[in-house]
């Protein structure tokens, strides 16, 4: 029975050819399939661009990394990535709002003790900005040059600015507004690869069994996997069932802990 269901959105990496192929096929006459960027991939591209920038400037004799205060170290790039991802994953209503959120993170990182620039940072006790958070609690803000600070010295901030401009274009940001990720797909794929490693050759039957059991486990946990094993004609003992329920309980607990830590 036809349900007229259409998949009109595809989430993929920036260099994926899937979207172009879908447009070429034109399966839904008159309906265009829209491409959305994976926030994790966009954030990864940002970090890679930062590392490439350090390497490129080093060849020119300009040192952006090193041990100087405000240098673009690996740890600093990780902090910049975290700020960038937080902005991209915030599900803004317009590209202008998203661009503003991203650029204010650069302004935040360019601040110093002598020149704090946190006017655009979110206020309140739950703010990600340490300066605004300290003000909300009535405490003096800590130094911008602490060990866990994302402070960039003026030279580095000026060198990084074109990178922010390139990664906040209208075309790219319009595909990031929904803050979508491929996490669910990657999680399912990992379960398939656990049963059938992708670097080893396997026949069709083994791939089908691995995929079916992975889908059952992914959708219903141990209950789904036990049903699959039973349907395949294999028997289960009480120990297998108990271990399955314990595994599900452990995964739920870990997921809840992760969600609480991310809030």
Automatic annotation (TrEMBL):
Domain Mutator-like transposase, residue spans: 4-129
Name by which UniProt lists this protein: Mutator-like transposase domain-containing protein
InterPro entries: Mutator_transp_dom (IPR049012)
Organism: Plakobranchus ocellatus
Pfam families in alphabetical order: Mutator
């Amino acid at each position: 029975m036809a349900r007229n269901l259409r998949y009109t959105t595809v989430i993929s990496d920036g260099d994926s050819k899937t979207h172009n192929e879908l447009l070429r096929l034109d399966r839904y006459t008159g309906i265009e399939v829209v491409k959305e960027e994976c926030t994790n991939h966009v954030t990864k591209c940002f970090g890679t661009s930062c590392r490439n920038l350090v390497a490129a400037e080093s060849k020119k004799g300009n040192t952006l990394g090193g041990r100087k205060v405000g240098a673009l170290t690996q740890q600093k790039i990780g902090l910049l990535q975290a700020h960038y991802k937080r902005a991209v994953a915030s599900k803004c209503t317009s590209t202008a709002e998203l661009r503003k959120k991203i650029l204010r993170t650069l302004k935040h990182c360019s601040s110093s003790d002598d020149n704090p620039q946190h006017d655009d940072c979110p206020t309140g006790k739950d703010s990600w900005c340490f300066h605004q958070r300290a003000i909300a609690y009535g405490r003096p803000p800590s130094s911008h040059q602490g060990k866990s600070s994302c402070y960039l010295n003026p030279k580095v901030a000026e060198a990084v600015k074109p990178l922010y401009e390139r990664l906040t274009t209208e075309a790219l940001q319009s595909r990031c507004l929904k803050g979508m990720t491929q996490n669910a797909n990657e999680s399912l794929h990992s379960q398939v690869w656990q049963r059938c490693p992708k670097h080893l050759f396997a026949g069709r039957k083994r791939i089908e069994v691995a995929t079916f059991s992975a889908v059952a486990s992914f959708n219903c946990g141990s209950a789904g996997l036990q049903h699959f094993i039973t349907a395949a004609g294999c028997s289960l003992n009480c120990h297998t069932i108990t271990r399955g329920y314990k595994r599900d309980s452990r995964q739920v607990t870990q997921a809840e802990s992760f969600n609480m830590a991310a809030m």
